[in-house]
Design goal:
It is a single chain. The protein is α+β, with helices and mostly antiparallel strands. Among the domains are: 45 residues, no CATH class; 51 residues, Double Stranded RNA Binding Domain, CATH 3.30.160; 81 residues, Classic Zinc Finger (Double Stranded RNA Binding Domain, 2-Layer Sandwich), CATH 3.30.160. The termini are far apart. The strands form eleven sheets. The chain has a two-stranded antiparallel sheet. The protein has a two-stranded antiparallel ribbon with strand order 3-4. Strands 5-6 form a two-stranded antiparallel sheet.
């Protein structure tokens, strides 16, 4: 029996074999004595990978992909299409794998365990990212300023500080953000959504990081320690900010009046004194505030909540600064 090949349609320079790790597909055509080598979609895709070709281009942003399904998924970023919905909470996702990860939030199963601190995670990727907090590994490096990051997504967002790119836009107030996560957090200022709930006291938060910090108030855990003065903190970002009190570093500078700040959040709040922007609005009386903390404190005038309690006389206050002033009366 003899194989008959059509040289004009040989993929990858007239050579395609398993020994060169290229998938080729043969099928019978006509009689058993005559066979033709045919380029299937799989074979064509494999050849594109080896040649570095990206034949599928997005007509909106000119990004190119080697696989058609990758282009289809990418286009959902522009269209806003989210075909994959969670049957528990109805949240929708543009990528099926994101839905699968999300569904783990509704399950108590956390099969991935850190062998250093025994923290558990719902996904292997979450465990891998966590382990970098122990190893200090930062494999993702910015090619502009050489800053290194433990996650690729953080590097992608950082790079936008160089390019000025803000692809994620709020459909309510048209504010633009460099990352989808920041946009989702911002949108909760409009919706009032607080999906992260403390399992000890049932307090709800709009950001997972805020909820994690809050939980440390129950456990008393302060795992982040300053190597200069041994002060301990329950959040790594607060430790980084604290370290600037030793170095007097003020990397965040206002481009209007040149005032410098140790913290990016302080610079953002300061800039609103120039713009007059008050993006945080009370849903009861429509009072607008420059920052979220002020809005939270204001809302307590409606709810009557007084979460700050004096440990001497048990008087309660709606904001921390008032409690601090009150404590001085006991000194």
């Amino acid at each position: 029996m003899q194989w008959i090949f059509n040289d004009s349609i040989h993929c990858y320079k007239n050579t395609c074999s398993f020994y060169q790790n290229i998938s080729c597909f043969f099928f019978w055509q006509g009689t058993l004595k005559e066979h033709h080598h045919v380029q299937s979609d799989e074979c064509r895709y494999s050849c594109d990978i080896h040649r570095g070709e990206r034949p599928y281009g997005c007509e909106e942003c000119n990004k190119a992909f080697s696989k058609k399904c990758s282009l289809v998924t990418h286009k959902r970023m522009h269209s806003g299409e989210r075909p994959y919905s969670c049957e528990v909470c109805n949240r929708a996702f543009s990528i099926q794998s994101h839905l699968i990860k999300h569904k783990c939030m509704h399950s108590d199963e956390r099969p991935y365990v850190c062998d250093v601190c025994n923290k558990t995670y719902r996904s292997n990727s979450g465990l891998i990212k966590h382990k970098r907090t122990h190893s200090g590994e930062r494999p993702y490096v910015c090619d502009v300023c050489n800053k290194a990051y433990s996650q690729n997504s953080t590097l992608i967002q950082h790079k936008r500080t160089h390019t000025g790119e803000r692809p994620d836009v709020c459909d309510v107030c048209n504010k633009a953000y460099s990352g989808r996560g920041a946009l989702l957090q911002h949108k909760r200022t409009h919706t009032g959504e607080r999906p992260y709930v403390c399992d000890v006291c049932n307090k709800a938060y709009s950001q997972n990081s805020t909820m994690i910090r809050h939980k440390h108030t129950h456990s008393g855990e302060r795992p982040y320690v300053c190597v200069v003065c041994n002060k301990a903190y329950n959040d790594r970002s607060i430790l980084i900010q604290h370290k600037r009190t030793h170095s007097v570093e003020r990397p965040y500078v206002c481009d209007v009046c040149n005032k410098a700040y140790s913290y990016k959040s302080d610079l953002k709040r300061h800039k609103r004194t120039h713009t007059g922007e008050c993006p945080y609005v009370c849903d009861v009386c429509n009072k607008a505030c420059r920052n979220e903390c002020t809005l939270i404190e204001h809302k307590r005038t409606h709810t009557g909540e007084r979460p700050y309690v004096c440990d001497v006389c048990n008087k309660a206050y709606s904001n921390k600064s008032t409690l601090i002033r009150h404590k001085r009366t006991h000194w």
